[in-house]
Amino acid sequence: MFAFVFSTLALQSLLNAYSTPWSSTAVPRGYRLSLYLLTFAGVVFRSELAILVGTLTLYLFVTRRISITKIIIPAGLAGAVIGLLCTIPIDSFFWQSFPLWPEWTAFYYNTILGHSADWGVSPWHFYFANALPRLMLNPATYLLCIPIAVLNGATRRRSLDLLVPILSFVGLYSLLPHKEWRFIIYVIPGLTAIAAAGAAWIWTRRAKSIVYAFLSFTLAVSVLVSFAASTALLAVSSLNYPGGEALYQLYGQKGLEHGRRNTVHLDNLACQTGATRFLENHNANQTILDVLEAQKALNNRAWTYDKTEEPEKLHDPMFWDQFKFALTERPEKAIGSWETSWVAYGFSGVRILKPGEKSGGTVVPLDDVGWEEYMAKRWTSRVAAMWKRVERLFRESVFRGWWAEVKMEPKVWLLTTTERIGDGL
């Protein structure tokens, strides 16, 4: 999300440059700042922003708004150099490996070596047909407002100034087989700005004809519905981190000796759903000197975390002998003697209940008693209780027995070995 902040600030600078008279010295400064911020964010936070920098730079150059020597090279060079000076020492310290440039490492592994496809592939049209509509949420933005902003002569030029580099970025990124909405989220503020121009055109003319009045009413209703849907999705999104919940439960286990050596294996799903380095437990404060003696610092830690993914190692019984705990999606694949200490549930979709149909099956509804007990100290439990009360009030009287339930299912198992392993365990 840090990259999203920088890309939004870059959009602000770009819009300021677009809206400023060409004779002003603020115009090239705005373009330069926009490209600098995007370059810096691409180097430090998200490498995919390099494609957005490329499409935006090419569009501005082709439309003769920027020059190579005065804007492109200074902005790109400053963003790259300052970004590298920030990311290499800081990330090397936290990862205890020097020198390290995480974004280049990820880009090389996923894009150049082609390993991104290991995480799944999607059709070329996924971003346009699925991801963008879901991110925009309000259908009126892309079905009504953006087309009007592009077709209307008064807003066409500025709308295309944003739309062309944005859609070019999405189109180029669609060539990669592995696709996730988070890779293109940076275009949403720009698309929203274009939609806002179209919405403003409609709204200011609502008194001129019945058509504009109807469209204005439709926009107002769609905003309210989108707000309600966003609020509901916010609550649901908090249920997508079973890996983090499982790691949190591990630290809170009774009888756990934090001062002694504890080894934990984290599988892929656990890492993807919240079990990040930010939740790792260290027995002592780290200093900048630790990066120079990384192996010594690792050996002195009370907690050791393993994220091995190689199948040949995971099938080796000797590999599992080193761990005291495991957070895994498939407990049956953990070789050895293990017992389940805790199970983290995660979001499993929304189920439509027909009249007379009760919740149940292999999944657990959000308002299940066991789930409420687990979430007793979390705000989502209050949402679940409120949803249950609303169901009792309105399901039969208003919706004639129809209802929707949020489903939960087991996602990550916290396993504890039943054998004594290693020294000090």
TrEMBL record:
Membrane-crossing segments per the record: 33-59, 71-95, 135-153, 160-177, 183-203, 210-236
Catalytic reaction list: an alpha-D-Man-(1->2)-alpha-D-Man-(1->2)-alpha-D-Man-(1->3)-[alpha-D-Man-(1->2)-alpha-D-Man-(1->3)-alpha-D-Man-(1->6)]-beta-D-Man-(1->4)-beta-D-GlcNAc-(1->4)-alpha-D-GlcNAc-diphospho-di-trans,poly-cis-dolichol + a di-trans,poly-cis-dolichyl beta-D-mannosyl phosphate = an alpha-D-Man-(1->2)-alpha-D-Man-(1->2)-alpha-D-Man-(1->3)-[alpha-D-Man-(1->2)-alpha-D-Man-(1->3)-[alpha-D-Man-(1->6)]-alpha-D-Man-(1->6)]-beta-D-Man-(1->4)-beta-D-GlcNAc-(1->4)-alpha-D-GlcNAc-diphospho-di-trans,poly-cis-dolichol + a di-trans,poly-cis-dolichyl phosphate + H(+)
Subcellular location: Endoplasmic reticulum membrane
Coiled coil: none
Pathway stated in the Swiss-Prot or TrEMBL entry: Protein modification; protein glycosylation
The entry's keywords: Endoplasmic reticulum, Glycosyltransferase, Membrane, Signal, Transferase, Transmembrane, Transmembrane helix
Signal sequence coordinates: 1-17
Broad EC category: transferase
InterPro entries linked: GPI_mannosylTrfase
Family: Belongs to the glycosyltransferase 22 family.
Protein name: Mannosyltransferase
